[in-house]
Every structure is written in structure tokens, then in C-alpha cells.
Design goal:
The protein has about 120 residues and is mainly β. The protein is about 5% helix and about 50% strand.
Length: about 120
């Protein structure tokens, strides 16, 4: 299974960040898998943002309500892709964004994309 993130590397404050993860070697509709997004701001740890499962149900972080309210994950089954949208971004949303696959539970990742740097700046 391979995952590849794509999207703009620079987003202006207050805009919506949109990233796509293209999956190959496995179907995003296959049972028992979750397809998620994780980010790592500079100098900080990994932060799980949310995921979508094989039926299209979505799950979002409860740790940071301000992040949960701005995050939306969807999918395009015809292209075997899932997307992340993060609205009203600020410079604090600058991070490396990763897509991943989880098996069994939401936060046991077994495959990761290489990550993509997104900078929020004027």
C-alpha cells in the first residue's frame, strides 16, 4: 500500500487548506481500515486530526476543539483518494501533514505517506 499527499505548500491566513491523499495498492473502501490525517508542527509532536473509514464515516480529534471544528475529511472512491480540508487557517497550522492507514483502531497506523509541508503565511 502506498499513500501520497498532494496540495499547495503555501496557504494564506484565513483561507482553507485542502490536501488530497492518493492511495495505491489497496482500496479505501476495503473493510476494517481507517484513512487518516496527522500533522506535525515545527518543533512539536505528531497530532492526529481525523479519519474516514471504509463506509465513509468520519472521526475527528476531541483533544483540540478548535481543530475539530475546522476539520473536514471526505473521499473520492472513484479515484481512491481522500481529502483533508482545514478552514480558517492561521500560522499555527503550519506543519508537515501526513496521510495514513490504520488497522483495527483509529490510531494504530500501519502505512504512512511521506508527508507534505504546508506553510500558512502572507
Amino acid at each position: 500500500v502506498q499513500l501520497q499527499e498532494s496540495g499547495p505548500g503555501l496557504v494564506k491566513p484565513s483561507q482553507t487548506l485542502s490536501l488530497t491523499c492518493t492511495v495505491s495498492g489497496g482500496s479505501i473502501t476495503a473493510n476494517s481500515y481507517y484513512w487518516g490525517w496527522i500533522r506535525q508542527p515545527p518543533g512539536k509532536g505528531l497530532e492526529w486530526m481525523g479519519a474516514i473509514d471504509s463506509s465513509g464515516s468520519t472521526y475527528y480529534t476531541d483533544i483540540t476543539p478548535s481543530l475539530k471544528s475546522r476539520t473536514s475529511i471526505s473521499r473520492d472512491t472513484s479515484n481512491n483518494q481522500f481529502t483533508l480540508q482545514l478552514s480558517s487557517v492561521t500560522p499555527e497550522d503550519t506543519a508537515v501533514y501526513y496521510c495514513s492507514r490504520s488497522t483495527g483502531n483509529l490510531r494504530t497506523m500501519d502505512y504512512w505517506g511521506k508527508g507534505t509541508q504546508v506553510t500558512v503565511s502572507l
